[in-house]
Design a protein that fits this description.
The structure is a single chain. This protein is an all-alpha fold and 172 residues long. The protein has one domain: Chorismate Mutase Domain, subunit A. The protein has seven helices and no strands. The chain is globular and about 55 Å long. It binds the ligand C=C(O[C@@H]1C=C(C(=O)O)C=C[C@H]1O)C(=O)O. The ligand C=C(O[C@@H]1C=C(C(=O)O)C=C[C@H]1O)C(=O)O binds next to α2, α3 and α4.
């Protein structure tokens, strides 16, 4: 029956899109560390040179993984924008309430190594989710996987909004 096959296809799509949502949220969690690494150092949230390195690297990895480099770069532009949404919000919060600012300053180079590893895993999840990303029900499934990840990773409002921002180009 059409209903049964649609349900089966939807489950496959959940299996494909859940890792993408989960990795996207893990990448956003690094924004807290990046924000702390930069806070009070004069280093700007926006680092266009680093962004270009990330985009060049993931385009190359996409070709190796058999993913569409154009779609991969589009999705990563959104990961980067979402990361900066979190960083800016945290800097505003710490400016307004200095007692809430982090006491430790993480090493930005180390945080970027973690981001690099997550980038590689995300490229894999993008490659593995091509059917679901092109499906007409992609947006509905993505809403479901976003909600799952929000609960699994106990995302606060800021990181939930950022995860939605990061997901903008996933479907279609
Ligand atoms: C995360 C950082 O901050 C911004 C976000 C980036 C990203 O999400 O990859 C890259 C450069 C910066 O514009 C960083 O500087 O590493």
């Amino acid at each position: 029956a059409p209903t049964a096959s649609a349900a089966t296809a939807g489950q496959g799509a959940v299996a494909q899109l859940h890792p993408l949502s989960a990795l996207s949220a893990q990448r956003l969690a690094t924004a807290d560390l990046v924000a702390a690494a930069k806070y009070g150092t004069g280093s700007p949230v926006d680092d266009p040179a680093r962004e270009q390195q990330v985009l060049d690297a993931v385009a190359r990895q996409a070709e190796e993984a058999g993913a569409d480099p154009g779609a991969t770069v589009r999705i990563f532009r959104d990961q980067i924008e979402a990361n900066k949404v979190v960083q800016r919000a945290l800097h505003r919060k710490w400016d307004a309430d200095p007692a809430s600012a982090p006491a430790e300053r993480p090493d930005l180079a180390e945080v970027r190594e973690r981001i690099n590893r997550l980038n590689g895993e995300l490229v894999g999840a993008i490659a593995a989710s091509a059917p679901a990303r092109g499906a007409p029900y992609c947006a509905g499934v993505l809403t479901v996987t976003t909600a799952h990840v929000r609960h699994e990773q106990r995302l606060d409002a800021l990181h939930t909004v950022a995860l939605v921002r990061a997901s903008r180009s996933v479907c279609g």
